[in-house]
Write a structure and sequence with these properties.
The complex is a heterodimer of chains A (122) and B (363).
Chain A: E1 2-3, H1 8-17, E2 22-30, E3 34-43, E4 48-57, E5 62-64, H2 73-84, E6 87-89
Parallel strand pairs in A: 1-4, 5-6
Antiparallel strand pairs in A: 2-3, 3-4
Chain B: E1 3-7, E2 19-25, E3 28-35, H1 43-46, H2 56-60, H3 67-82, H4 88-116, H5 122-142, E4 151-152, E5 155-156, H6 164-187, H7 190-196, H8 204-210, H9 215-219, H10 226-229, H11 250-274, E6 296-303, E7 306-314, E8 319-325, H12 327-333, H13 335-339, H14 347-354, H15 358-362
Antiparallel strand pairs in B: 1-2, 2-3, 4-5, 6-7, 7-8
Helix pairs in contact in B: 3-4, 4-5, 4-11, 4-14, 5-6, 6-11, 11-14
Classes of the chains: A alpha/beta (122), B alpha+beta (363).
Chain lengths: 122, 363
């Protein structure tokens, strides 16, 4: 289901209250004009899956952190910060996860140019 | 007063290139901080520039211990995006090959785990003898020993050879005997017991909260297995039951894999007895109809290391976006939680029990 990012945390909390106690994955798709974050949560006992889709503005992409509700969100959020340049509000750890990019375009966005010369920090 | 020591990135026990910054107090671990990304190749971005069926070789390199499983998960996502049905015989062939691959992977786990505990190369050589026989079978069936690339849309590249059933049953009989031998050897071994029982305990609540998956989750008392929760191919017909153990320590994680090998062996036998006649070959690589634009597909598969979810947004010729939920990535995230309060020497037995492949973590 599609929801607004301001209502995301309360929705996740409500889902966790009804048995969805397992976070499968958080991912983002860049559609060119906007981005969409997708949260997959699961109720293991009843074998139900739920997908939350959050549309993000391209100019101001931020998400609230879900780490207090689902600790598993930690590394997924760090990956999104790094690969899509999304600001995750409310996080303590902001260290990049996979690489150390030199302040360049986030590599998984569609605007990333393949042939441009990019340098990474050593 | 705690001391920080750095382990890796190049270290014989890290199963690849992984850097662990460990805070210790005396011999007790206070905290572990994994630094990953040394094998990051950006596969998810790379496949956006390739045609659909040019990508399976990249997928296989993500998990070099069980390459076919990753290949199959990706091809299944492509099939879902293109709306291709898998032929019935091909479904059986895939299940047989995937379960053989799982046996090979779990055997490798057993050898690597014992290496991590200091039982250098005895077990490793024993399991490699058996693993080699699995690879021989897969070579007969696919033509390759390591990177198979044998999945095609709707089927596989080669049907099973005529004498495959006999060879496979002979191997499975041999394997069942060997597993009993391994159990006898390991479960009465004081070193093995000491370093597995009660070490690296993960409770069911923590396992769910940290999002761990696969054998690690099932060892903690949560019987979630994609093969039984969302049966794909013919797993529903073969009567698959998820393994479950309660304790959540290293020993339970080792035990789950032993039980899964037995279950896989049973599944292969059952599939071989039920396999129908017919055609199992898939479409040639070049014959691909265009996919719908922006169709979103989610495919879950149970790999030897846990659940892999492929989230794909399709474009006519190539994936618009592929997001891989890698099982090792999230299992490694749980490592600090399990290691806190344990001895430093047990860090690698805990890591070994997670069965990590670093290429799968970094993608």
């Amino acid at each position: 289901m599609e929801i607004d990012r301001k209502g995301l945390l309360s929705k996740l909390e409500a889902l966790k209250g009804t048995g969805f106690d397992y976070l499968v994955k958080i991912t983002v798709v860049d559609y060119g004009k906007n981005m969409q974050a997708v949260y997959f949560v699961r109720d293991i006992a009843k074998n139900r899956d739920e997908t939350l889709e959050v549309n993000l503005d391209y100019k101001d992409p931020w998400l609230p952190t879900a780490i207090d509700i689902y600790p598993a969100a930690d590394w997924y959020e760090r990956e999104l910060m790094e690969m899509f340049g999304i600001e995750i509000k409310g996080r303590i750890t902001k260290r990049l996860l996979l690489e150390k990019w030199d302040g360049i375009d986030p590599p998984f966005r569609k605007s990333f140019e393949w042939n441009k010369e990019y340098r990474t920090q050593v | 007063m705690s001391t920080r020591i750095n382990i890796g990135p190049v270290h014989p026990s890290t199963h690849g290139v992984l850097h662990l910054a460990v805070d210790i107090e005396g011999d007790t671990i206070k905290d572990v901080e994994p630094h990953i990304g040394f094998l990051h190749r950006g596969v998810e971005k790379l496949v956006e520039t390739r045609m659909y069926m040019q990508s399976p070789p990249y997928m296989e390199k993500l998990d070099y211990v069980a390459p076919m499983s990753y290949d199959e998960a990706y091809v299944a996502a492509v099939e879902a995006a293109l709306g291709v049905e898998v032929k019935e015989r091909a479904q059986y062939v895939r299940v047989i090959e995937l379960e053989l691959q799982r046996i090979a992977s779990h055997l490798f786990f057993l050898g690597a785990l014992c290496n991590d505990m200091g039982q250098m190369f005895t077990m490793f050589m024993w399991v490699f003898e058996d693993r080699d026989r699995v690879l021989d079978l897969l070579q007969e069936a696919t033509g390759q020993r390591m990177f198979y690339v044998n999945m095609r849309l709707g089927g596989v590249t080669m049907d099973l050879p005529p004498d495959f059933t006999d060879n496979c049953i002979a191997f499975l009989d041999h394997l069942d005997k060997r597993i009993t031998e391994y159990e006898k050897y390991l479960e009465k071994n004081p070193v093995f017991i000491e370093r597995t029982k009660g070490v690296g305990i993960l409770s069911a609540e923590d396992a769910k909260a940290l999002g761990v998956t696969g054998p690690t989750l099932r060892a903690s008392g949560v019987p979630y297995d994609v093969r039984s929760a969302k049966p794909y191919y013919v797993y529903g017909k073969l009567g698959f039951n998820a393994v479950k153990l309660e304790k959540g320590d290293n020993f339970a994680r080792y035990r789950v894999r032993i039980l899964e090998m037995r279950e896989s062996s049973r599944l292969v036998r059952e599939a071989l007895s039920k396999i129908p006649d017919g055609d199992a070959l898939g479409a040639p690589i070049r014959l691909i109809g265009p996919a719908a634009k922006n169709r979103v597909v989610t495919v879950s598969r149970e790999l030897p290391r846990g659940e892999c979810m492929m989230y794909m947004v399709s474009d006519p010729q190539r994936p618009y976006r592929l997001s891989i939920r890698s099982p090792c990535f999230i299992n490694l995230y749980a490592l600090p939680h399990m290691a806190r309060g344990q001895r430093l020497a047990d860090l690698f037995s805990i890591m070994g029990s997670l069965d990590l492949v670093m290429a799968c973590v970094d993608r």
